[in-house]
Amino acid sequence: MFYTTDSNRHGLAHDPFKAIVSPRPIGWIGSKGGDGSINLAPYSFFNAVSDRPKLVMFSSSGRKDSQRNAAETGAFTCSFVSRNLADKMNLSSAALPYGDSEFDFAGLTAKQAELVDAPYVGEAFAVLECKVTEIIEPKTLSGEPSENVFVFGEVVGIHIDEAIVRDGRIDMSLARPVARLGYMDYSETSEVFEMFRPRSQQG
To answer: Flavin reductase like domain spans which residues (predicted)?
Structure first.
């Protein structure tokens, strides 16, 4: 099968693009508006994009509450989505009116970040506190603006629950991270294996 994305004639019942680019980590973004209201929303277009400095990015189609709040306050948090919180993460994706708290709707504890003006999920095993570095509206090949908004943030603080730490490392079998697949599918990390980079003959 081959098809061009301008026509998107794949002949399948559902668009396979996001199923191919998977699994994707979920950015559970906490933010606060200029009016003081708080927001929590999961984004599957999310990832770490740099280690030095530590940068993460999330994006969505259209300027949603998270992007609006990040632009107004210059900050956001990202809470780790573990299997035990998957149902509450899904609840927090509900399209509530601006100003209504997804934390309350999903039965989650909103905790104030240490270094940035944004809330995070108190029940999460790990949290990134981020300061906005750039907000970008990318263009298409034709130069037209796309419908997407990218928010980049530098991680300035990290919370880790020591219950998931073993032998100096986060134990993923305890953390049980949840990832987004295609369609309405999710996955939990249930098997972890190591592979080390090969060394060249000269190395």
So the answer is: 21-172
